[in-house]
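Re: copper (II) ion structure - here you go.
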Amino acid sequence: MRAASWAASWYDGASYVTQCPVYPGDCTSHRWTVNEAPGTYMWHGHSGSDRGEGLAGMVVRSCFFLNDWWHTPGSVAGMPLNRPFDSARQTNKTGGWHWVNNPQALTMNGKGNWMDCNLNAGGNSTPPLTCNVTDYWVPPGASAVQPWMSAASLGCVHANVTVSAGKTYLFRIANAAQLAYQTICLEGHDVTLVAADSVPIEPIAASQLNASRPGCVNINSGQRYDVLLTADQPAGNYWISTHVQYRPGSPSGYAVLHYRGAADALPTTPPPQPQTVGPWGLPELAMIVMSSTLLAANATKFEGLEVAAQKVPAADLRLTFNITQPLMNQTRQIRWAINNVVGLRAPPCQALLDLLHADPNWLGKQSGTGGKVQVFLTTADGSNPPPIYPVAGTHLVPLKRGQVVELVLQNLPANSFNGDYRVPAGQNRTAMEQHPFHLHGHHFWVLGSGEGIYSPAGTNASTNASALNTLNPPRRDTATLPQAGWVVVRFVADNPGVWLFHCHLLWHEMMGHAAMFVTDIGAVPPPARKGRSKCSKTCVYNAAPWDVPTVQMEFGSSGFELPRAG
Ligand SMILES: [Cu+2]
């Protein structure tokens, strides 16, 4: 499980990073002190496709908990992502690599609808939503429609959120989606954002962010917003709709904001359609800034709880993470890479934190060596240049406690750094996508974001660096790297431990979109509980520097990070 994790580095929950996963038949229990910055946190499984299959929720209820849904288990839907391309180096839909495609439904608080059946109930004559079954991955031998919708199983439920007229509510919105950057819209009601990723922000109405879409909040996977909503409209029923950005053809999700005393019915207005709801742009995102209360001189408490220093300190070191989507010569797998390294969680079957705690010099011994899983370091001093060809390995970034790290995330075309093995088609493949990057164990300041290539200070007269906001930037733990763009974040490495930094799109993470910051392991206090559980000796990883036959053998039919039979 991954939950709020300060000073709990042994139990952060990322499997094989800080601990072994909870194997089938095992159990674990957690007890923790609620002593962190007030705000909204979620918990979710952090092994394989746990999160996508329902092992997720919020620490506090009273929420809009958003997710996306596939009607096949994540281990099945995601398995083709591991398969190598065929010998012609092209996608092969019969047994080879295959993308999971768009989600099949969006859910809110665990409920959702499949296609249009619910919307046409109650006399609603709105045309069906534009969704196309052929866009979706269908298990071999299964009907494209069954069992997801039939006369006997409509698969249609929706969440009802009941409010009383005249009252103001605090709603906590969280997006746990595997893939979907979502916009949630509250029909007829503006909302005021008051916190982002558990950090209090200067209150701002959704209508101030985008006047044409009042009541709409954009939220990427992993992010949270607290919003205030006043039930100030005529008593009735109003649509709560969720829409997927950047992935056209995805279904939308629908729920109902219901006024107490009104008829129990669907809204009479047409349900909002996805094409009418666009995403916030970079200028809007930059308007979501820290609360001025937090920025006040000597502010150390917020609502009675300690808060970390909120002033943005100068950077001690600068790192650049170049983000690409290589098709690897090594394994013929398509992956996501950071500095040309496709990230594995850890050496097989051992939690990296255990390993490092037992031998603080382990890191220095591993750099550049071989083995079943190779270790790659990114450092600020240039002594560890990225590999020339994309490789899979454990990607670590050693930090000293207290260092202020400025990190540039730069989106680059897929064929950068010898990243496109596919010839001749796709030789100039330039695919790029947006990525919500999430850092465990810390918050960071989001100093700036833009299109194109980031230009650091000193390179030309009008650098992007000179425009970074270090006065009152957004502060959060999940930031969007825009497609074909960059984002600069800064954080204080004040939490000893091994901290996963990963794209919060589950399928991307499975395809290697992760690295780990390693901070001052010697300062990690001993685990609260003696007798750390041992990992299974027979776990399986979703990428490795193996040859093609090995990958085919390992992933022809097996699961992610699961103990194998025998
Ligand atoms: Cu990603």
